[in-house]
Design a protein that fits this description.
Layout (H helix, E strand, L loop, with lengths): L4 E5 L3 H13 L3 E6 L2 H11 L3 E5 L7 H10 L5 E6 L4 H9 L4 E4 L3 H13 L4 E2 L1 H18 L3 H11 L4 H8 L3 H14 L8 H8 L6
Parallel strand pairs: 1-2, 1-3, 3-4, 4-5, 5-6
Helix pairs in contact: 7-9, 7-10, 8-9
């Protein structure tokens, strides 16, 4: 039943061992494992496994770079990426490279068996959890669109650790106006009215504040 040959690669020894032990216990046919991208790619070229389960970020070559090479060289190995990253760009890149599986590390043990089963049948498996999270990101992007240019400017200054007093001085507005803007931003972004909630949000989304 579980005859597909599998190689796995992760540059974190504990995670690699954990995944290896878990799959071995479930009687999957693991034929090799690597500690970095170069080792993983060499295993794919030498052993032609049916499935390669790869960490997305590894030394020498990332999981995405390996997938790109496999696609360029028309290898039959189906790539499953396991990642800690939740960025939309990486997710979209994975889809563009015809990657078969995309699983978040925090849910890997819950999802990996379903993922392998679907991939071995020729069907892609993209973690429902990442889709949920990306839905949240889309909602955040929509919320950002609702901010006025002044509010965006203030948010960017907050991300750069500027105080209300410093923001007022830099934008030639009153301290009270800054406070009003902050309150409006918190409402538009649906944040809790807690100390530092806006600062934390601004830092986490700094790259979107152009």
């Amino acid at each position: 039943m579980k005859k597909d040959t599998i190689i796995i690669a992760d540059d974190h020894p504990l995670l690699l061992k954990g995944l290896n032990d878990f799959l071995a216990e479930k009687k999957y046919n693991i034929i090799g494992s690597g500690n970095n991208g170069r080792e993983a790619y060499n295993l794919i070229t030498k052993l032609s496994p049916d499935i390669a389960i790869l960490d997305i970020q590894m030394p020498f070559m990332s999981g995405l770079e390996i997938a790109q090479k496999c696609k360029t060289n028309c290898f039959d190995t189906k790539i499953i990426l396991i990642t800690l990253h939740k960025e939309k760009e990486l997710y979209e890149q994975a889809q563009d490279l015809n990657i078969f599986g995309y699983v978040l590390k925090e849910f890997a043990l819950e999802e990996i068996e379903t993922c392998i089963k679907m991939v071995s049948e020729g069907n892609p498996f993209f973690s429902p959890k990442i889709k949920e999270l990306l839905g949240d990101h889309n909602a955040e992007n929509e919320a950002l669109k609702d901010l006025t240019p002044s509010e965006k400017k203030i948010l960017k200054l907050i991300a750069n650790d500027k105080t209300n007093k410093e923001i007022a001085s830099l934008l030639f507005i009153s301290y009270r106006t800054v406070e009003k803007h902050r309150s409006n931003i918190i409402s538009k972004l649906a944040l809790e009215h807690k100390t530092n909630s806006l600062l934390i949000w601004a830092k986490e989304h700094h790259d979107k504040l152009i």
